[in-house]
Amino acid sequence: MSIDRLGRGPATRTWRALTAGMVGLVTFTLGCSRRAEIPPLNFNSASGLVHPIQVFRLGMSLPDALRADPQLRNWYPDAPASPTKLDCQLTTASWLPFHDTLEFSHGRLVWLESSVDNVDPAEAREFEANLILTLGRPTRQLYAGPDEKILVWISGDVRVRYEDARWGGPTEDASPPARALTLDFAAYAAWISYIESPQEPSPHKADFVAYERRTWGDGPLVSPSAALPRSVESFALGMTPEQSSAMFPSGQVSGNTHESVVTIPDAWEIHFWDDRAYSIVRRWSNIGDWRSEFPAMRKQLIRQFGPPLPEFAYGPGMSVMQWDNASTEMEYRLVSGTGPSDPSSIMLTLIDWGTVTAKDQYEYQASPHGYTHFARDSFF
Q1: β-strands 158-166, 179-187: how paired?
Q2: Largest CA distance in the chain
Q3: DSSP alpha helix (H) spans, the chain
Q4: CA distance 323 to 332
Q5: Between the CA atoms of 249, 254, 260 and 264, what dihedral angle is there, to the nearest 10 degrees?
Q6: pLDDT tens, 243-276?
Q7: Preceding peptide of 310 cis, ω within 30°
């Protein structure tokens, strides 16, 4: 099985009827539901910032959302959406071209995300331009790394976040290189209260909420790490396949004219482009007590490199942290096993962005352009 960094793959018509002719701050009271147990959700926002995504809009009730899309499904575990589960995360059944995710608190939609994958980089720039034409200039450019950009709009109680990220990891066979675009709308105070609530369990809950706040524009801007390692033990980014084979003659070599891979099962995976290592993955298997070892490693890494961006915690035994600067990305990943035949492991991945950029440019020119097609480069 290939050892790779986390892929990203992982929010349309304008809501003009409610805001036409209005200026300044508008108060929205989305209530009066026929279900008395669903209270209204009040929030303030400038008129130009509140827009529907597909058939959904912030503040709508869960029954209204199910009437708009009867095919909505529970995010996890996968099942048809329940009209009586008022705190829930739902998802649209279709993934093409847009895929929507909705979070409800007390039966009201407090967070709405629409995403699209496999976007031509040129069209991704058009998406951003059209988004700015619709919403105005963003309040903050929160982050701009080698493979990711995050823009945030803030107005009253509503926030909008746009992310343009690489689709899939640099070593994945996603040819030609493509972008993954995500647009989020949040009734921010209500949504933060929801993710802080006990029904949203997560390891490192306080750190998770702090990370979410940073990625929505709260707190200090996140700057790329200044100094990241370029080598792991004997292997270094930029080394040649011959150098790696000399150190590990038993390594398994595969690939083609431009790209090759040297693999040492359950230990190393090194990817080369034009005979230069651009990805190094080190895997430590048979981690005995990951519940103590990984948190200790995590604290040490944060002290050394600062808060990661991003950090994902998918459950007690699955956690991913990433740091990057203009030249290098570093990722640590914990994967907990189920027993002796499936041991826990920690993986460290280093990426050389200079070589990845050259690889992307070559593949963009050389590969068939099988991108997702849009009638208009816009979420709206």
Answers
A1: antiparallel
A2: 73
A3: 62-68, 121-135, 188-196, 205-215, 241-247, 290-305, 353-366
A4: 9
A5: -40
A6: 888 887 766 767 667 888 888 877 889 999 998 9
A7: yes
Amino acid in position 46: A
* CB-CB contact of 63 with 33 (8 Å): yes
Question: Hey, which residues does 354 pair with through a beta bridge?
Answer: none
- Cα(282)–Cα(266) distance, rounded to whole angstroms? 9
Nearest-5° angle of CA 316, CA 7, CA 211?
50
State both tokens at 30: 């989305």
Q: Is the peptide bond before 80 cis (omega within 30 degrees of 0)?
A: no
CA distance 183 to 54: 12
CA–CA gap between residue 21 and residue 277 (Å, rounded) = 57
What are the strands of the beta sheet with 79-80, ordered from one edge? 79-80, 73-74, 88-91, 99-105, 108-119, 179-187, 158-166, 148-155, 140-145
- Looking at this protein, which amino acid is placed at residue 305? F
Q: Dihedral angle at the C-alpha atoms of 354, 346, 200, 87, nearest 10 degrees?
A: 70
In terms of pTM, does the model score above 0.70? yes
For residue 284, name the pLDDT band (cuts at 50, 70, 90): confident
